[in-house]
Specification:
Chain A: It comes from Henriciella marina. The complex is a heterodimer of chains A (about 375) and B (about 220). Chain A is of the alpha+beta class and about 375 residues long. Chain A has helices at about 40-50, 95-110, 115-125, 140-150, 170-180, 180-185, 195-205, 220-225, 340-345; strands at about 5-15, 20-25, 30-35, 55-60, 65-70, 75, 80-85, 155-160, 190-195, 205-210, 215-220, 240-250, 255-260, 265-270, 280-285, 290, 305-315, 320-325, 330-335, 350-355, 360. Chain B is mainly α and about 220 residues long. The longest helix of chain B is centred in the N-terminal third of the chain and has 30 residues, at about 5-35. The chains are: A alpha+beta (about 375), B mainly alpha (about 220).
Amino acid sequence: MSADRLSLDIALARETFGLKVREDLALEGVTAVFGPSGSGKTTLLRAIAGLETASEGRISFGETVWQDRAAGVYVAAHRRAVAYVFQDARLFSHLDVQGNLDFAAKRARKAGRSPDVDAAIAAFGIDGLLERRAVSLSGGESRRVALARAVLSCPDLMLLDEPLTGLDRAARRDILPFLKSLPEHSGCPVLYVSHDLEEVAALASAIVVMEAGRVLANGPVGEIGRSLDLGPLSEGAGPASLIEATVTRIDTDSGLMALEAGGETLLLPTAPGAREAEKLRLFIDARDVAIAVERPGPMSIRNVLPARVGRIVSSDAAADALVDLTIGSELIRAQITRHALSELKLETGQQVFALMKSVRLAGDFR
Amino acid sequence: MPDLGPVLLSLHLAAVTTGILLVIGVPLAYWLATTQARLKPVVEAVTALPLVLPPTVIGFYLLILMNPSAPLGAAWVSLTGGTLSFSFSGLVFASAIYSLPFMVQPLQSAFEAVGRGPMEAAATLRASRLDAVWNVLLPQSARGILTACVLTFAHTIGEFGVVLMVGGNIPERTRVISIAIYEHVESVEYAEAHILSAGLLVFSFVTLVGVYALNRSYRLRVS
């Protein structure tokens, strides 16, 4: 799959903020649009889809120009070959599930594409729902139908607006694999809006970080995660770290697997289906990381790694301080009380030990 | 037994008026439900005028408008050879004006209740505007459309003042049920007046019960 280039140079005035984006995105697989709510993620996605008719500037995708106000070009939403999965699924309430799927497939065929309804039904596990009315579906079911419907539209670009919002953790865990396989089933790149760092970590290969209507950064997730503290931008969750690790050994006796991250070894419960040499993304809540100035004695915590203190963020306004810890080439954040910070006399550059009480796979939602 | 001609004429008039208003009302109500034009309140007010004006006022102006010496009346004469006033066509024209809010307002409410969401979803699934209106908006507004048609039909049957002014009282042409009742009462034929009046009362009541049972959410806003 070659990368499709999405060129954006758009501006859109809103009551609460102005969207101003000038980026060239090479889209491949899942690209996350990440930022706090009100940062313009959804507006950006809607502008790309052609749903924000007041947007100014230029949008092109691959060779196709979708919008060029200077040249008087504005391609209507239904001619852009994008599929959009809305936060609230937006299934057609007057049709059953089959009717919803056929709606998309019929119009895709008219546009000269070849949607495979049976394949989509199988891929999203909805064969038991076909005769159900859209309104009778659970949150998770309706998202799956919405995804299948979007795939059957045979788009060139798939736009997803927080498709996991409003679902409980179990439902989110169920849907995640479907989202992961979306580029494969749709055969096109996916732009995925989310304010949840963990979702991003679990799904996306690249990330576009937004704040206040502007793009702060864009690039591979691992790179951006190291250079930019995404924690404060993540809603609901406190500060956290995201690191990439490679499975080095799977021990069936203990049920643990060893992972290598930044030159150090971590032990985690074996993930179902994990293979040796596989790359996994790990999510570490900053509150689950403790700091010791000397190597602690025998203890229950498995992951104790030598680390070097980096930046320390502490203010009189909060009881807690944030401490960046460098472990090999990776960066992990620890949230400790200011009281502990002053008692341990932590300073930038100091050698310490990071005690990680809990490390989990991104997207595990446990 | 009274002459059933006026009853049939009323039903005919109501059916034709409802059909015409449905064709006019859907695009007008869609425009009202979706536009952000500054003109919107003006158009809404014009649409709602028949609800507040006395039928005599509407009837008076329509009469002037349909007069063969007025542009509209003259155009009609040159087009069809007959006059618009005191004809069935004139009644249809007048009914379409005074029943307009009964079609447009429930439709507008229904379209607004469906909202932008499903239309946007349709657009992102390659459906053109017309396609989306036809295959998403209208099916999802089905109950509102039915309500609008029933109310328009019933209101057209019940109108008296405008009909009397622009149509007069010509048997088989403009003598609708309400006029016939008036005529019977004037002539002290109370038995005939009773039969027609009670029939209209029962018809209206059953219709309204049907409408309200069908849906509580598409009521008229002004009346």
